[in-house]
Specification:
Blueprint lengths: L2 H13 L4 H13 L1 H19 L10 H18 L11 H18 L31 H4 L8 H18 L2 H4 L2 H11 L8 H8 L5 H14 L5 H7 L6 H10 L2 H11 L5 H10 L6 H13 L7 H13 L4 H10 L8 H10 L3 H10 L7 H11 L4 H6 L8 H9 L5 H12 L4 H14 L1 H13 L6 H11 L5 H8 L6 H14 L5 H11 L4 H26 L4 H12 L5 H10 L1 H6 L7
Length: 599
């Protein structure tokens, strides 16, 4: 309420013609506004003084004396009272007496002869009155038409006290049963106060210095509030002890409250508390409510992609991962948001328990409003059952080929590997893109490559062993070594391919591959000298001289045949690359150490 409006209601307040809502607003305004309180107290003092004045003289009217008596009474009241409380109404007779007195004085001063003649008798004899007519009986108006409510300020204080007690008594329900049960308990306690502005009383209590009382008032308004009290909830955010309560109350207030909170979210002052208390620790909000809150917040985001706004958006998207189905749906709906990164959306989608189901439903639709590029990334991340077929259908799309291959490589099982082998044989896809997909599949699950290599080596799978070996070697990944060694024992692989593969293993093999290399050496030594030489090169390259010395010292391998094998290699019946590797790795070793036969 503004001061001008308050001043216009003072007279009606003294007359008792204000309704309860107006009386309450005026009372609250006078409590808070020192200027209006001073004017109100002065007018109240005047009204009470007029009530105490005697009736004007009947036989003689002395205007000057009557006016002086009024001023004397006012002065006396000011000296003996510290400011009497304003009464809610004043008898109209006292106000009328003042008006008659002042008006008659003005009439006398306005006479042209300057006032009464001093010689004129001052005693006035009243004329005989005419016989009075029988009084006319009129029914009281109040019994026919309801008049204005007369507000008892003592009663208003009593109501305030009851509302405070109800809020305090129901306060434990906030933690036990939630805000809705708390609000119902408060309303049950004050259910007999119909006609009193309970909501307005509660709104004023949000400013109380008692934090517990203010917190309870804020949470009540969040559940039962109207748009009129949203400002009180917003104001609570400026108090550190009420920030969390204010955020939760604004969320409880529905769309209007979330709109207020969404605007506050992007300010430096309130972004942290709005996320921490409104989303990150939602003790009383279900997943759908939190998801809708995040949607409203992101809808109110600034268009400028400054670092602070990007960080806020990233945090909001992260919280979508806790919002179950609605959170998963929003991960797709927010793809085109200017402040949201696709990778953050995929992370949130993977964290939701409903993300896979939502993705499957979208893939089943004949047409989708979501970008296929994002859907392919989602397929690669979530691996839905229908993902392999869906991604395969988009491999030959020039704009989607790379993403589709990545989605295929990310799927589990042997199916994707066989599809990649078929694509390699058909030459329908660019070789660099295919190699990238093959490497990604290796990084995801190397064990399935080893199992596939074992099946191919045994002939259980109708695939070209040499082609598979070439692909594994070209990947240059340590994860491919177990699968390579599994294929080298197959008679389906050409001798030159075995030697080159072992030289590749020498480059990117690991120490954990040494036991398999030793087993392979013992298996191929009698039949394939070149393969044996390749094993020795790989063992020396990975384990050093100590690994070779330990091999000759503790192995039953025919050392003389190994030396004969090496000698034959140096005579020129091996590819030049093999000779180079043998010279680099084993030449110095053979010149300084002769392997000794185990006794």
């Amino acid at each position: 309420m503004k001061c001008r409006r308050a001043h216009s209601l003072f007279e009606r307040s003294f007359e008792g013609t204000l309704g309860i809502e107006q009386a309450f607003e005026l009372s609250e305004h006078v409590r808070e506004c020192a200027r209006c309180r001073e004017v109100h107290d002065a007018q109240s003092l005047l009204v009470e003084t007029l009530e105490r004045l005697p009736e004007p003289p009947v036989e003689r009217i002395d205007v000057e004396r009557a006016v002086a008596a009024i001023h004397a009474e006012l002065d006396s009241t000011r000296r003996t009272s510290s400011g009497p409380r304003a009464k809610p109404w004043v008898p109209l007779a006292a106000a009328a007496a003042l008006a008659v007195t002042v008006g008659f004085a003005a009439w006398l001063r306005g006479r042209g002869d300057g006032g009464p003649d001093p010689d004129v008798a001052t005693t006035i004899t009243p004329a005989p009155l005419a016989p009075a007519e029988p009084p006319l009986v009129i029914e009281p108006v109040a019994e026919l038409v309801p008049g204005p409510s007369e507000v008892d300020l003592d009663r208003l204080d009593e109501i305030r006290s009851r509302v405070r007690d109800a809020l305090r008594a129901a306060r434990p329900l906030l933690a036990e049963s939630g805000a809705a049960s708390f609000a119902e308990s408060v309303e049950l306690s004050v259910s007999d106060l119909k006609g009193w502005p309970v909501e307005r009383i509660v709104a004023r209590l949000t400013r109380s210095d008692d934090s517990e009382l203010a917190l309870a008032a804020i949470r009540y308004l969040g559940v039962r509030s109207s748009r009129a009290v949203l400002a009180d909830l917003e104001r609570a955010l400026s108090r550190p002890d009420l920030e969390r309560a204010g955020v939760l109350a604004l969320v409880d207030a529905g769309d209007a409250g979330r709109a207020v909170l969404a605007r506050k979210l992007w300010s430096l002052e309130h972004s942290r508390v709005a996320i921490d208390h409104g989303v990150a620790h939602p003790t009383e909000l279900d997943a759908t409510a939190r998801a809708e809150w995040i949607a409203a917040a992101l809808a109110a985001a600034p268009r400028i992609a400054e670092p602070r706004a990007l960080a806020t958006a990233k945090r909001l998207v992260f919280e979508l991962g806790t919002c179950e189905r609605r959170g998963a749906e929003l991960c797709f709906e927010l793809v085109d948001h200017s402040l949201v990164r696709e990778e953050d959306l995929l992370d949130a989608l993977a964290r939701t328990r409903e993300g896979l189901h939502v993705l499957e439903e979208i893939l089943d639709r004949p047409l989708s409003q979501f970008p296929e590029s994002f859907l392919l990334r989602a397929v690669a991340r979530l691996e839905p059952p229908a993902g392999l077929a869906w991604a395969s259908a988009r491999i030959h799309d020039r704009n989607l080929s790379e993403l589709a291959l990545g989605a295929v490589a990310a799927q589990g099982g042997e199916g994707p590997l066989r599809l990649l082998l078929d694509l390699h044989r058909s030459r329908e896809v660019d070789e660099p893109l295919l190699a990238g997909a093959w490497g990604a599949a290796l990084d995801r699950d190397p064990e399935r490559f080893r199992l596939l290599a074992v099946a191919v080596a045994r002939g259980d799978v109708d695939r070209d062993a040499s082609e598979l070996l070439a692909l594994l070697v070209s990947s240059g990944k340590s994860a491919a070594v177990p699968a390579i060694l599994a294929l080298l024992s197959s008679p389906l692989v050409a001798e030159d391919g075995v030697v080159l593969a072992l030289l590749a293993v020498a480059d990117f093999g690991r120490r954990e591959d040494l036991p398999d290399l030793v087993l392979l050496l013992e298996a191929v030594l009698p039949e394939n000298r070149r393969a044996a030489a390749g094993c020795l090169v790989a063992i020396h390259s990975i384990g050093g001289e100590d690994a070779v010395s330990d091999l000759f010292a503790g192995s039953e391998t025919d050392v003389d045949r190994v030396l004969s094998l090496l000698a034959s290699l140096t005579r020129g019946d091996a590819p030049s690359v093999v000779l180079f590797r043998v010279a680099m790795h084993l030449g110095p070793l053979l010149q300084t150490k002769r392997p000794r036969r185990q006794s």
